[in-house]
UniProtKB/TrEMBL annotation:
Any one of the GO BP annotations: pyrimidine nucleobase biosynthetic process
Source species of the chain: Thermocladium modestius
Ligand binding (5-phospho-alpha-D-ribose 1-diphosphate): 88-89, 92, 94, 114-122
Subunit structure: Homodimer.
Annotated residues for binding of orotate: 118, 146
Family, per entry: Belongs to the purine/pyrimidine phosphoribosyltransferase family. PyrE subfamily.
InterPro entries to which the protein is assigned, alphabetical: OPRT, Or_phspho_trans_dom, PRTase-like, PRTase_dom
Annotated pathway: Pyrimidine metabolism; UMP biosynthesis via de novo pathway; UMP from orotate: step 1/2
Name of this protein: Orotate phosphoribosyltransferase
Phylogenetic classification of the source organism: Archaea, Thermoproteota, Thermoprotei, Thermoproteales, Thermoproteaceae
Gene assigned in the entry: pyrE
């Protein structure tokens, strides 16, 4: 499947929606990207994971950002034969009370994964949490970058798709 076909599949399955939406950043948008829908469609997630594999070279662990990045980090780690950890949004008040969950050693090289980035605040907080436990964050990877490359992720930020690429392909189909 080529990129254009994949993007159209995202639109067909409601991963990219048009309307009026409030974003987690507090802003409003006339489109919404719901990557949680994509994990329900094997034809979509298989292709996206394959596109992500090139970014996982030279790392030892894949870290997911709770909650949108966790399934993607898990699938990518499995595909690459690597361990996976995840970063909570806040320390839980029971059990081990950890912010970073999973097995890791200080100094390990990590790729941080999230589904969609707008301002970069979620990934940046995750990067800070990973660094605070001694991990070496090599780069961050979002499936979709809504920021136009302007997000402050606290590490080099890469993406599978830019929002412009998605919208350019889907706007014609939406109108």
């Amino acid at each position: 499947m080529n990129r254009r076909e994949l993007i159209r599949l995202l639109g067909r399955h409601g991963v990219v929606q048009f309307g009026e939406f409030k974003l987690s950043s507090g802003g409003f948008s006339d489109y919404y990207i719901d990557m949680r829908r994509a994990i329900s469609v094997p034809a979509i997630y298989r292709e996206i994971i394959e596109l992500m594999t090139g970014e996982a070279v030279g790392v030892e662990l894949i870290a997911g950002i709770e909650s949108g990045g966790v399934p993607w980090a898990s699938m990518l780690a499995y595909r690459m034969g690597m361990g996976m950890i995840y970063v909570r949004k806040q320390v839980k008040e029971h059990g081990t009370a950890r912010l970073v969950e999973g097995i890791y050693e200080p100094g390990q090289r990590v790729l941080v994964v999230d589904d969609v980035v707008t301002t970069g605040s979620s990934i940046r907080k995750g990067v800070e949490s990973l660094k605070s436990v001694g991990l070496d964050v090599v780069k961050a990877l979002a499936i979709v970058d809504r920021s136009g490359g302007a997000a402050d992720a606290g590490a080099e930020l890469r993406s599978v798709f830019s929002v412009g690429e998605l919208l350019d392909e889907l706007k014609d189909a939406h109108q």
